[in-house]
Design brief:
With 224 residues, this protein is an all-alpha fold. It has one domain. The protein has 9 helices and no strands.
Length: 224
């Protein structure tokens, strides 16, 4: 009886922890998708577009921007259901279809346009290098997630997709840090740069921590 109570208590703690994590993640992800929609009015009144008005005269950059934000919203939307145990067990086909959409969008649209736009990113050389790294790492981790799934190595598939998802979610976490630092009246450029670095490195750390906790041999997760 005692063991069953302990097991039930652990399950309750896991459920509450999962709820506390995924509820804000889901809400913030949906908010980002919602805030992306107005850009497709193709108005020039958005601050980002006004700041980079000269770049938007370049058709390739302009097209890359709109493809990138549409692709990013699609990735974040489809990835929300990818880590659901219920869908994995009861609606596996939904997981597979959403996963295929996610992988295609990252590899064909989101990462390549992000790579191109990284050369024109706001900030110093280091911020542009960081955007370049993000695009390449996102592409690589997603490609590894696809290859391990095709080999039916689903544990490694999950690990690589966690890393991929961490890159996708920088679009969300960056905005959270940016708003928080704005409330502390930080300089705009300094806020932008620090929010970017914390978002990328923080997301990578969380992803590796999650993988480490569930791995028997953590270092092997980089080669499998």
């Amino acid at each position: 009886m005692t063991n069953s109570r302990i097991l039930a208590a652990r399950q309750s703690v896991r459920f509450i922890g999962s709820l506390l994590f995924w509820t804000p993640v889901t809400l913030l992800s949906l908010l980002l998708i919602y805030n992306t929609i107005p850009y497709f009015s193709f108005s020039q009144d958005f601050i980002f577009i006004q700041e980079r008005s000269l770049l938007f005269h370049n058709n390739l950059y302009s097209a890359s921007f709109y493809i990138h934000i549409a692709a990013g919203a699609t990735c974040i939307g489809t990835s929300l259901i990818q880590f659901s145990s219920y869908i994995l067990k009861k609606r596996r086909k939904v997981h597979v279809i959403a996963g295929r959409i996610y992988v295609f969008v990252v590899l064909a649209l989101a990462a390549p346009t992000g790579l191109y736009m990284s050369f024109f990113a706001k900030g110093s050389f280091y911020e542009r290098a960081l955007f370049l790294f993000m695009a390449m790492f996102w592409f690589f981790t997603t490609a590894r997630g696809l290859s391990t799934a095709l080999k039916k190595n689903f544990l490694s598939h999950k690990n690589w997709m966690i890393r991929s998802y961490a890159m996708a979610m920088t679009a969300v976490t960056f905005r959270i840090y940016h708003i928080l630092f704005f409330l502390f009246d930080w300089d705009h450029l300094e806020n932008y740069e620090i929010s970017l670095w914390i978002s990328v490195l923080g997301n990578m750390f969380i992803a590796e921590w999650v993988i480490y906790r569930k791995s028997r041999s953590y270092l092997k997760t980089f080669v499998n």
